[in-house]
Design brief:
With about 170 residues, the protein is α/β, with parallel strands linked by helices. It contains six helices and five strands; from the N terminus they run E-H-E-H-E-H-H-E-H-E-H. Strand 4, helix 5 and strand 5 form a beta-alpha-beta unit.
Length: about 170
Amino acid sequence: MLTGGAGCGKTTTLRVVEALLDCFLGSGSLVKSAPTNTAARLMGGDTTHATYKLPRGSMVGRRAELSAAVLRKFRRRWAAVQAHAVDEISVIPPRALLHVDLRCRQAKQKDNDIFGGLATWLSGDFLQLPPVEEPSLALPLDDAGYAKEMDDAANDREQAKDAERRERR
């Protein structure tokens, strides 16, 4: 996980990692994605939904299933992949990250390995705006692993801390 503000070198660092992977593992060993087309193109990848063939909504039900032909092609595409990178992770809701994990397991046919056993690069800026309709990955979790709902006072304190951090930059 690499986090930091705009211009701190996250994408440049990823390019160096990609060059090393290409050198030692061969071209195509890294797949890159981002939630928006603009961010994906800047890093030389594709959108997260296109890369992982994510459905709109849930991964449960017929809409989430890949046909046999699509699944074969998907697995062929991922056969030589050793690592994957997801940029702008701060705007991806937790459910979508779970969907990425499930697709990686399908692609690599490793149901018991997190992200299908792939080396995983996550990067983003958690001081940016959170996802619009879903909770952010940056929210604190309760004992059961669910995002805590913050009361107004706690929310005000968090906003004040964020403003103070921005001023220090």
